[in-house]
Design brief:
The protein is α/β, with parallel strands linked by helices and 304 residues long. The chain is built from 6 helices and 12 strands. The strands form 2 sheets. Strands 3-2-1-4-5-12-10-11 form an 8-stranded mixed β-sheet. A 4-stranded antiparallel β-sheet has the order 6-7-8-9, with helices on one face.
Length: 304
């Protein structure tokens, strides 16, 4: 999260909110380059946007740790079956399979290109004997029919692509129907005062710069257009490598919609603060009160 067109709104569908520290998921160690690029030698011509996305944005290890933690907290056990909606290159599904030999996963995404990329680059992480526990569906989350699972995840704000409330409700109903009787729906949200601004922020990484571009915000409709660019030491750039045309949903709106479709309880997990730096500390705990900061990420756990 290479692309066949400059912008693919439903590609991996995953990004962070703008504030590089306060609203970023916990950092992880850099992974070896799939493209063979050496430190500082990356260029736009030699870089793969999906690899750069995984290096700069995704942290599927943290997400799977979080899923295990909330399952133990809410259900006293760990989940076995996972459905990753808007899965893109299905890195989280692959990580889930590696966790336990009993785990199974279903990844769902409309985009055949990013699914093919995942089959080429992420699927090889799994030994042949484990691949039967992973099912990849090229399908729409609004119409797909899968066996009921313990846990559905919609990470990195992918469901923000539903701009109308009735669309959001329809998707949440589909998730509700896809869960076992004690299942959990785990999703994330972002916000903060800077989320409503048209700004661009950079984060320097290993041999390239990740750029989060909040290009448009319409306060009348709540619509946003966000881009990810990648810039390189030689001055080249992958401009608009990923495009997100979303509605900026608020936490109260999301919680109310989840309750309306039949989820019984919603818990918001808010990030704690490093009191030395004033930034987020990477630890998310249940909370009924957040901070009015410039940028934040929160997780929601919806219970059947």
């Amino acid at each position: 999260m290479a692309v066949s067109t400059p912008t693919r709104p439903r590609s991996a569908g995953k990004t962070t909110s703008p504030r590089a520290q306060r609203a970023s998921k916990p950092a992880k160690a850099a992974k070896p380059s799939k493209s063979g690029a050496r430190r500082g030698w990356r260029t736009a011509a030699t870089s793969d946007p999906h690899e750069l996305y995984e290096l700069s944005v995704q942290n599927v290890e943290f997400e799977c740790d979080f899923i295990d933690r909330v399952w133990k907290a809410h259900r006293g056990r760990v989940a076995r079956s996972l459905r990753e909606d808007f899965c893109g290159t299905f890195a989280a599904s692959v990580e889930w399979i590696t966790r336990r030999p009993t785990n199974v996963a279903i990844g769902v995404d409309l985009d055949p290109y990013v699914l093919a990329w995942g089959r080429s680059y992420n699927l090889p992480r799994l030994p042949e004997r484990d691949r039967a526990r992973l099912e990849i569906r090229e399908a729409d989350v609004m119409t797909v029919r899968t066996p009921q699972v313990d846990c559905v995840v919609a990470m990195n704000f992918s469901y923000y692509l539903f701009k109308k409330r009735e669309q959001l409700l329809a998707y949440f109903r589909r998730v509700h129907a896809a869960l076992v009787k004690d299942g959990l729906f785990v999703l994330d949200s972002y916000g903060g005062s800077d989320s409503f601004r048209e700004i661009e922020e950079e984060r320097n990484l290993d041999g390239f710069t990740y750029v989060w571009d909040q290009n448009l915000y319409n306060p009348v409709t709540g619509d946003v257009v966000n881009y990810i660019h990648f810039r390189f030491p030689d001055g080249t750039e992958l401009s608009r490598a990923f495009t997100y045309e979303w509605r900026l949903w608020t936490l109260p709106e999301i919680q109310e919609a989840l309750l309306e479709v039949g989820f019984k309880k919603i818990t918001v997990y808010w990030e704690g603060t490093n009191h030395t730096t004033g930034e987020g500390n990477g630890r998310f705990r249940p909370s009924r009160r957040g901070e009015a900061c410039e940028g934040w990420i929160a997780y929601l756990v919806a219970e059947m």
